[in-house]
What we know:
By secondary structure, chain A is α/β, with parallel strands linked by helices. Chain A has helices spanning 53-61, 83-89, 106-114, 124-130, 147-159, 177-184, 186-192, 204-210, 233-241, and strands spanning 4-5, 9-10, 15-24, 27-37, 42-46, 68-73, 76-77, 91-94, 165-169, 196-201, 213-218, 221-226.
Amino acid sequence: MSEQVGGEYPRTPLLEVAELTVHHGQLCAVDQVSLSVRAGEVLAVIGANGAGKSTLLRTIAGLHRPTAGSISFEGDNISKLATHRRVRRGISLVPEGRRLFVSLTVEENIKVGAQSAGPGPFNLKAMYELFPWMPERRHQKVGQLSGGEQQAVAIARALVANPKVLLIDEVSLGLAPIVIERIYEFIPRIVDQGVGVLLVEQDVTQALAVATRVHCLLEGKTSLVGVPTELTPAAIEAAYFGSDVAHGAAEGPTS
Amino acid sequence: MIWVNTVIEGVLVGSFYALFACGLSLMFGVMKIINLAHGDMAVVAGYTAIFLVPKFHLAPVWSFVVVVPIFALFGYVLQRTLLQKAIDRDPFTTLLVTFGLSVIIENLLLEIYTANGQSIDIGVLISKSWQVSSTLTISYFSLVVMAVAVAVLLSLQLFLSRTGTGRQIRAVSDDREAAQLCGTNYRHIFGIASAIAFATVALAGIAYGISTEFFPSSGGANLLFAFEAVVIGGIGSLWGTLLGGVLLGVSQQLGAHFSPAYQVLGGNILFLAVLAVRPQGLFGKRTEM
Ligand SMILES: Nc1ncnc2c1ncn2[C@@H]1O[C@H](COP(=O)(O)OP(=O)(O)OP(=O)(O)O)[C@@H](O)[C@H]1O
Ligand SMILES: [Mg+2]
């Protein structure tokens, strides 16, 4: 039996990324990044525009091939596994920009996600309980929903696959603060089910509030790793923009 | 009365066009492939019915029982191998590959079966007809083709909207990457869409081979009509394809009514008019074009 943390979840990481390097052509978007996600924790990856956050998540999901490094899941190297097989193993991504199926209804979108689902607590019914507005609008095309509602559908579509690790890329993008808050209320509920969450966020305050650990990227490289309560705003700012940015520069991280 | 006859004949021919075109429409809708060998596939189905089916000791009317499954399998395999390889490169390669296939098929048929016309002989069944009035007789066979076309389109529509696999096909055609993120193996889904397309084009090829004489080069002309039907109806919409086929058939018959030489012209005029006024087609969405 593996060791237990807090007496609840195994200490060995579900997802382990080692020395991962990813190129887009000549451009090195992710540079020797190592991180791990355990069951029941939230790892927040923060960083400025173009820091390589989406590339990191998409590579873990199997949409980009790494140049070097490895991705392991439950101890197996999955670096060469096709995207749809990773989903069946237990890795789901809520992609940047939601990427819903526009000609499908709300319910159909979620059903596509459920079609290759593993065993677990999340199914269509559970989603309708999680998002009470959904049942009565389930036959609407997703184009008729607001941005926040579309984001909820995107999350539900990924959750019904019953992932062991859920990757979330900028849920807050383009949403009003009140809507962002409501979306973030769901993260603890997901984590309570033992799911490990790897969250990418530009809104640092939001990320710090929900994260167990924080991982900051700067131009593809790891610039800071730590526990939110132990990090000073100055340290985060330096890691976010690079240490050569003077304090009191025109803008700080979104807060 | 003469107009009614013209329209009825147009509808009958048009539903054949729709049967012929729906595979083209499906492959474009799902894989964004314009299969330039689509017409040639129909011709190959005709040759298969003539030269392979007798080996099964089957009456020619029943040839679809053998040819349709063979074509479905062939479609799946061709998609998973050659076509997928082309798609993985770029759309232009894909177009060239289907064009190459079309040329190869035509020349192979010419080499093996010569340029002589062939037809699938179903005996007296073809000459049975229904005398509606003194000026209008409708052959049973063209009614059967229309019924088959409507049934095929209806079942395809139901399959796409009601089944899990149909839902995955729609999801993949909306957003291939997002579908992968939902655990869908899009290559397999492409294979299935292709299998369906080839099965329908086999049916169309057999129907064509029963109703007229065909040649190794018949694919090209028919591809043009299928293409027109799809564009008139709106790319990716099955009901659009049915309507497009029927409208094309009717305008061709109206053209032919003035002079037999105007038959194809009548269809082309409608095609150009639709392109000018509503380029996305009657049922198409603007964003898809
Ligand atoms: N498909 C691609 N092809 C080429 N370059 C890309 C591609 N995707 C991303 N890039 C580049 O890689 C770098 C990292 O991009 P990425 O999208 O991973 O950053 P990000 O941290 O998610 O940024 P944002 O906060 O704006 O979403 C950027 O310089 C971007 O221009
Ligand atoms: Mg991003």
